[in-house]
Amino acid sequence: MNRHLRRKNQKKQAQVSEFHKNLLNAIDLHSKKKFKEAESLYNKLNDLQPGNYDVLRHLGILNQDQGQHEKAYNFFLKSIEIKPDGFEAISNLGTIHLFNKNRDLALKCFEKALSINPNYIPAINNLSGLHHRLNDAKLSLKYAKLALALQPQNSFTKNQYAKALVLNNRLPDAIDIFRSLSSEHPNDNSFKINLATSLKEYGAIEESNQIIKNGFEHNFKDIDFFGYYVSDYKNKLSQDHIEYYEKLLSDQTTLNHTKVIIAYAFFEYYKNQGDYELSGKHLINCNRLQYSMREFDIEKEIKFFSRIKQMTDGLTFKPKIDNKKIKPIFICGMPRSGTTLCEQILSSHSKISGAGELSELTELSGIENLIQTDTEKLIELENNLKNSSFMENVRDKYLDFLAKYSDQKSKYVTDKMPHNFVFIGMIKLIFPDAKIIYCKRDPIDNCFSLFTHKFIEMSHQYSYNQTILGNYYLLHQDLMSYFLDIFQNIFVLDNEKLVNNQEIVSKELINYCGLDWEDACLSFYNTKRQVRTASIEQVRKPINKKSIGAWKKYEKYLLELVSTLENHKS
User: Fold this and answer.
1) Which residues on neighbouring strands pair with residue 492, listed in sequence order?
2) Which domains does the chain have, with CATH numbers?
3) Where are the alpha helices (DSSP H) in 348-465?
4) Does the model's pTM come out above 0.90?
């Protein structure tokens, strides 16, 4: 090789080395959440090498971390165009599909990534996480175990395994892992938060609160702890705390999803301090931001509810009743209507196991596809629902799934998925022998509770806009009136009646289930079981009347909601 060519190659290698070095620097800045600096360096690298797979993919991850999912999606697509077998970008694309609730597409992406590289840990963890969301405890744990076997010392893999254990009702084992991860990685707050939330689910609320308190006091500028810290009414903020987070809230460069956390935290904090003026202002701001991140199509829901009625009118399936199998008890109603309290009362009975919120029935039947506009899929669904063999198979698979939640004593298992109120028609047709409990609450109390709750993963997006929230509640009310007219033997559990006459209503509830009364149902708050809903703390305490009429303290901020509901009455 001549000297000129050797120098040219050396220069090229140096450039490659420098490029790689800068890419690693950008990734490091990214990992430290220095998003602006990282983006600037990524963009410079992209100018130097347009169409570089790694740069484009990391730009996608950066945008995803900042809540810019559409931009992230486009970067991942460009990455895959450049490198069709780029399993990393394919898996990344799956996470965007998952965020958009396109679970089938997400599943295909993760599985395709694994087909290219069977040992790609992120894709395996993503599959575990996907099945976690689908409430498939078995598959979630299966993939988590696979990842752990490949990388037993990987902290993220251990974390995902622990989360799968939580889903499999193995909270003590999960808590041990979270505790170990928190000790091994004292600067990674996610492990501390997972530990705290798991302890809270287990009923160890004081220890959970103490972990959050210690984390916040160690570094009050850490946004991860801020929201959790102020949710405890005993915790106080200093003027430095308030000024720091108010400045972040007013800063135009602060990301919207960060502002949502801050605004909601301030709403809770000032509510606990009794300052409903400031609390209300932050509540309105929080919901405005939340709704702006993903609007809700109420017209689509109207068509969906209409299709539900049409489907119910046309179905006549009559399955065989097997008294030897598990007997399901369906608890449904609007979210925040008292479904968790109902399940806690029932699961305090020795013959009833509480399974929590299950999506298995709708997944097996495919009935949620009624919300789609794809004509072929709708025809396929309607044909399936009219097929006796198909429906019998759904019934058998669901009962087998439910059996995993039952112990030797209990033959009854609760499915507390609130949204099942939409599918009461199908439930009654598949399970004519099933007990269905409809939880009902004062409309404004119910809607106010929804409006003041920040749901995970932007679910229940209708709840962040007052007019849409009111209209969605009315849609629910209309559908339930329809079901209560055509179906007999649905137990209507009125939240206000339960609160005011706990023993009488609780006994009526147990009697409806065909069981003898047990006093443990009155002291439900002492029942040790896993609770994974927004009402996690309420059901650990005796019944109180604080939530009845609580909205009146915020009346001036709820004019749209009240007007929407009241106009319907007139």
Assistant:
1) 438
2) 12-118 (1.25.40.10), 324-529+544-569 (3.40.50.300)
3) 360-365, 375-385, 388-403, 424-430, 443-451
4) no
